Amino acid sequence: MKNEAKQVVTNFLNAVQVADIEQLNALLHPDVQWSQPGNSRISGIKHSSNEVFQMVGKMFELSANTLKLTDIKSICVSGNKVACLLHWNAAQPAGGILDVDNIDVYTVENGKIIKVEVFTADESKEEMFWGD
């Protein structure tokens, strides 16, 4: 199970880096529970892959399509849970910059991501970037 969970998450993160929507959709369970930290326009709990894709669409809109997963620093596995240290960058035309590490914890069952908990290293920076 450990290797399957790690492979699913690795495939997911690689798909994020190249914006492979078909692969992302294949790896997220339709009823995925996604927790995005903070109190911004993108924060809160998403209850489906559709809600996750809507959130990501808003992130691309707010970042003028510059949001990028620039580094997968670490992938750690415990059973069907995978914790990843990730680095994100984005820039807004008005000058806002996002340059932040996140720790994402993915739960995998039957080859699909069923739960994601995102932790940010700088919640105030993210809230300022994403707005309310």
In short:
By secondary structure, the protein is of the alpha+beta class. It contains four helices and six strands, in the order H-H-E-E-H-E-E-E-E-H.
Name a few traits of the molecule.
35% helix; 4 helices; 6-stranded mixed β-sheet; 132 residues; alpha+beta; Nuclear Transport Factor 2, Chain: A
Q: Which structural class do you get from the secondary structure elements? A: alpha+beta
Number of helices: 4
Q: What is the percentage of strand-forming residues?
A: 35-45%
How many β-strand stretches?
A: 6
Can you summarize the main beta sheet? 6 strands, mixed
SSE sequence, one letter per element: HHEEHEEEEH
Number of domains: 1
* Through-space gap between termini: 39 Å
Second-tier CATH architecture = Roll
**What is the residue-mean pLDDT, rounded to a whole number?**
96
Provide the CATH topology. Answer: Nuclear Transport Factor 2, Chain: A
Read across the widest sheet, the strand sequence of neighbours is: 2-1-6-5-4-3
- The residue fraction in helices comes out at 25-40%
CATH class: Alpha Beta
- Alpha carbon gyration radius: 14 Å
